[in-house]
Design brief:
By secondary structure, the protein is mostly helical. It is 67% helix and 0% strand. The longest helix has 27 residues, at 122-148.
């Protein structure tokens, strides 16, 4: 039986194909209306679409004049998006979208056509990995807090440094503690992530050694 999870990768693949087609319109459209239709092709919020365009402008334009004009339009789009978020004035969305689509497309005057692969936004990739690690840390803190009857904040502040030190100085003991806490492999990796110098910690914990 095929489940939703089995075909979930198809949805992700289709979204990538959609954004690639939309970016082709942004960077190679011959008309304003053609470029403006790019955003209608994708199922994503305007800020994410902005990041895709922003990331790929340098690879698609090879003339400095075109690059400067494209980034001016993106700067305007960014200002509109910030104002929308700050004031909830959604009437400005059409201006933001026009700047990041037609504004960028019409910036091409001197750049020669060349093939360059589209890249996933580096800022989004960084934020995604940061968010994933933060969620793992929260899960780890919750398990420590449950066993020690402390708050999550106290678990991170007072218990986690000791566990990280034990992971470096006595991995077998850390593994036993991890099993007792019911840690997943991903959560356990946070403890074992320190390969070099152990953290500076107070008290007797610094004398824990592998036997």
């Amino acid at each position: 039986r095929i489940t939703a999870e089995d075909v979930s990768w198809l949805a992700a693949r289709n979204r990538i194909l959609q954004i690639f087609d939309a970016l082709k319109l942004v960077f190679y459209a011959k008309t304003v209306n053609g470029a403006k239709s790019a955003f209608e092709m994708v199922d994503m919020d305007p800020e994410m679409f902005f990041e895709w365009v922003y990331e790929n402008v340098p690879a698609q334009f090879n003339a400095l004049e075109d690059l400067a004009e494209a980034f001016e339009n993106l700067a305007l789009a960014d200002l509109f998006l910030a104002k929308i978020k700050r004031e909830q004035n959604w009437k400005l969305l059409s201006y933001a979208l026009e700047c990041m689509t037609a504004g960028v497309a019409m910036s091409r005057r001197y750049s020669k056509p060349k093939w360059a692969p589209f890249k996933f936004p580096s800022r989004i990739r960084f934020l995604s990995s940061f968010k994933a690690r933060r969620e793992l840390l929260n899960g780890l803190a919750a398990k420590i807090a449950s066993k020690t009857h402390a708050s999550r904040a106290k678990a991170v502040r007072e218990y986690l440094p000791y566990l990280k030190a034990i992971a470096v100085l006595n991995p077998s003991l850390c593994e036993k503690i991890g099993k007792n806490l019911g840690l997943t492999e991903e959560e356990f990796s946070i403890l074992g992530g320190l390969k070099e110098t152990p953290p500076e910690i107070p008290g007797k914990a610094k004398y824990v050694r592998k036997r």
